[in-house]
């Protein structure tokens, strides 16, 4: 199991589907967001007074994130992306 | 449904109309603002003490925003723009 | 009506008059300030503790501002400039 | 009358005199300070908690300031310089 | 013994194993994270009010960290890496 | 008399002596510190809450400072250097 | 005697020994840390509220520091390095 630190989030990419209900990024966009599923979240950002500001995303959330954000890694045979919560644009409700 | 995170706002672009009451951006402007309708807003910016500072714009507001701000995305067949509230210049009242 | 957000201010440019009482920017200045009339002001800057710091300029103030500051826009047939209060140098009393 | 905003100060340049009591900037200095008389001061810097931190310089002070600081403007036929108080190096007592 | 200062952490690199349970960084990743074992931690980050914010990682934690983070050093014949806790991406639980 | 503003300090350079008790900067150093005598100090840095944090150096202190820091000026026929206290490295006790 | 200001520390370099107990920096490291002995420490960093945050290193500590940090100076015939505490990586216990 991977436990992200601080305000980091681990995401499993979801292939972009071309169905009516999916998110489809237009080909011409310069900075394409991508879609994924949150698999682990850090405890949150530690403020200067020592208090912890919990994250807004939680495990199993479907999210849209900036394309070039974060670092890719492989764990137990699967590909993940680890990024900061601020690189996540929106939750797909 | 797309729920933006933090101080992000989702906007649907509105075509610039050339009527007397519409916003018309002069052609020669280097950095042209654009017009849109707010479709979803985040909960607000989280300050260092953990408190949440709510956004000033709300759903259905008509707004003027910086042209190159934000990230474009398509959801359920429609084009949206997701940007930070600070990239919004003014509300059209 | 345009309602600026936060610490933004909407200004209508005033042509520089060459009378003794007007502000005349020397031709050789690298960074020429310009003169305008405030037509709308935002509610102010939101500090990190959530309090709002009201602006010092108000509607109808005549102001001098940095030449290249802000974004130009046209509304109901008139040209305006929208900029942050910090780009305003002085009020003409 | 020009009323500077925030931590800005309006200065009238004073020609550098080559007398024993004047400030003479050495010709070889890369970044030459200059001398002037304060003609108007802003109310001060607004801190994040909304309090105002008054300026240390006041009208009629003779000051030394950084050469390339600020913006030049002409008002009622006179040339002035408007700069931030932090660009003022010292008061000539 | 080496005692890191502040928010610094000393890590002993662990060779990337190609077993199913290990972390395998894909060859094509631009910015490859790496795996290590924490051997010493600083007392934490000192906040502006003087309080100390303890680190989240502790000795013997297995961690994933950014490839080019930190400074390499040799101590008593062994190679270590000293980096800031913020360069650590996740703990392997 | 020159009264520096804020956290600024006015220094009179002292020639580097090559005696055993003097500070001798090695010729090969890329960034050579220099030696001087403090002739005037500002009231201190004004913190965001309006309180003033007094300086640690005082008049007549002999100090070592960064070579390229500050601005040179001439006053009543003498050469001085005006710099921020943070550019002073150490007091020679 | 040299008394460093604020969060500065004066260090006397210690030659890297190639014994088993010494720190040996690998030749290939891009950014080699170095070893030294602390000879003087400043009173600490002055926080924005005026309180002083004392340093963690003390006189006689053996420390490892970043190679290109700080400024070299000679005092009473000896070579020293003056740097900020944040450039010190670890104390050798």
UniProtKB/TrEMBL annotation, chains A, B, C, D, E, F, G:
Transmembrane segments: none annotated. GO terms for molecular function: ATP binding; metal ion binding; protein folding chaperone; protein-folding chaperone binding; unfolded protein binding. Pfam families: Cpn10 (PF00166). It is found in: Cytoplasm. It comes from the Bacteria. One of its GO terms (cellular component) is cytoplasm. Belongs to the GroES chaperonin family. This is Co-chaperonin GroES. It comes from Halolactibacillus alkaliphilus. The gene is groS.
């Amino acid at each position: 199991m991977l436990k992200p630190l601080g305000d980091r989030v681990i995401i499993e990419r979801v292939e972009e589907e071309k169905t009516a209900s999916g998110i489809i990024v237009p080909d011409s966009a310069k900075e394409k967001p991508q879609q994924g599923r949150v698999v682990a979240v850090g405890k949150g950002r530690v403020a200067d007074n020592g208090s912890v500001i919990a994250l807004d995303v939680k495990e199993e959330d479907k999210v849209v994130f900036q394309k070039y954000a974060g670092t890719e890694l492989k764990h137990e045979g699967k590909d993940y992306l680890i990024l900061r919560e601020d690189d996540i644009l929106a939750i797909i409700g």
